[in-house]
Amino acid sequence: MKESTTDDRTLDANAVAGMLETLFGADMTVADSKCAACGREGEVGTLLAYTMAPGVVLRCPACSAVMLRMVETPRGTLVEAKGLAFVRMNR
Question: 37 falls in which pLDDT band (50, 70, 90)?
């Protein structure tokens, strides 16, 4: 397992909680998730958030794999989540 590193541009996904809630209609920071690359499970809020790019990239804190990408455009918000094996929202 690769040890994660952080720098001044790295936050946890709680920093983009508002954007996630707007997209999914619920507090996603407490939703369970699983990395498709390494199998690590944890709350979405524990993912590493990179926000300096044109959008937001959420990475696995264990293996650094990209789990979710979001970018807002004039036509809407694009979301790619192929790095997530699953996201489970509690009722």
Answer: very high
The one-letter amino acid at 5: T
**In this model, does residue 4 exceed pLDDT 70?**
no
> What totals of helices (H) and strands (E) does the chain contain, helices first?
1, 8
Cβ partners under 8 Å of residue 38, min gap 6: 1, 60, 62, 63, 65
Please provide the DSSP assignment of 46-57 as one string: GSEEE-SSSSEE
Q: From the CB of residue 47, how many other CB atoms can be counted at a distance below 10 Å?
A: 25
Helical H runs in the chain? 17-24
d(CA 47, CA 64): 9
**Domains of the chain: which residue ranges?**
10-88
